């Protein structure tokens, strides 16, 4: 396989338990802010009680996904805590990049079937990460849980409403994937396949298209019934401004078009999804949402 695009940005992550839907939403809002924000400011945007938001933020800090820091002193009283999402470069997952590079090179050099061995390794990884989890009876819920898992590993998935067509703008081992795409991308596809089968009661198909657009890989998920309905992984557009955090305008593959999805574009003021920044009003502190 030849890599012609730059592909995803470096990703981050760790072997954590997948976030709940509400906690994932809080993290998405936090990632959309240009500067650290208080729990109260974030609570107003998330439409949640401040104590609930603070609980989620503390858990995100414990998981290494967010950072808590004091505001600069201003007047009397203790400065408020402010929170920001941790950048991928700060993640301890980067420590494993060197090991991944060594293992990928060895598989590529010594294996009679590098892709087959990579898929098998990824499938084993997926089974380990989902071991002991109860299978979801609804295929869509299983797909959403897989996306939670991929997000925790560091892929920052962006998807359509049905969680079938997924854009992966980040990759925890993208540098090694550019050098050995058949191995690293095979591991990731095997991971997705085994994890999705473990997380759901209904068998679903998984197809990973590495470096399919200039700034992302594409992942296609669906049941056999969905495939029979005419789903085409090469005929879909990346999620629109509501779902894109890292895609550059104009970087999508030409001619991609799926109802309900738009190509990544400029940041949408007031959008409530990752990648958006709430509009600042007059008198608002930098980075604070009102």
UniProtKB/TrEMBL annotation:
Annotated region described as Disordered, given as residue ranges: 241-290
Entries under Gene3D superfamilies matching the protein: Winged helix-like DNA-binding domain superfamily/Winged helix DNA-binding domain
InterPro entries linked to this entry: WH-like_DNA-bd_sf, WH_DNA-bd_sf
Pfam family, one: HTH_20
Biased segments, Low complexity type: 259-270
Compositional bias (Basic and acidic residues): 278-290
The protein's name: Helix-turn-helix domain-containing protein
């Amino acid at each position: 396989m030849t890599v012609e695009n730059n592909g995803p940005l470096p990703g981050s992550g760790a072997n954590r338990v997948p976030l709940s839907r509400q906690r994932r939403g809080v993290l998405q809002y936090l990632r959309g802010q240009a500067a650290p924000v208080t729990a109260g400011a974030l609570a107003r945007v998330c439409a949640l009680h401040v104590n609930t938001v603070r609980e989620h933020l503390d858990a995100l800090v414990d998981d290494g996904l967010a950072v808590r820091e004091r505001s600069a002193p201003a007047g009397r009283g203790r400065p408020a805590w402010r929170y920001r999402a941790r950048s991928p470069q700060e993640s301890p997952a980067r420590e494993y990049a060197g090991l991944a590079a060594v293992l990928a090179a060895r598989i590529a050099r010594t294996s009679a079937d590098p892709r087959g061995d990579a898929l098998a390794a990824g499938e084993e990884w997926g089974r380990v990460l989902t071991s002991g989890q109860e299978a979801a009876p609804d295929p869509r819920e299983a797909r959403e849980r897989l996306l939670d898992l991929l997000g925790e590993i560091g892929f920052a998935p962006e998807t359509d409403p049905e969680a079938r067509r997924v854009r992966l703008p980040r990759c925890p081992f993208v540098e090694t994937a550019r050098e050995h795409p058949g191995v690293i991308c095979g591991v990731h596809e095997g991971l997705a396949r085994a994890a999705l089968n473990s997380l759901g009661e209904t068998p679903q198909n998984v197809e990973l298209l590495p470096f399919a657009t200039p700034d992302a890989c594409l992942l296609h998920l669906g049941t056999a019934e969905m495939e029979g309905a005419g789903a085409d992984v090469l005929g879909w557009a990346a999620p629109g401004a509501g779902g894109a955090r890292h895609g550059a305008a104009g970087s999508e593959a030409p001619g991609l078009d799926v109802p309900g999805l738009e190509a990544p574009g400029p940041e949408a003021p007031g959008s409530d999804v990752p990648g958006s920044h709430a509009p600042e009003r007059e008198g608002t502190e930098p980075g604070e949402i009102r």
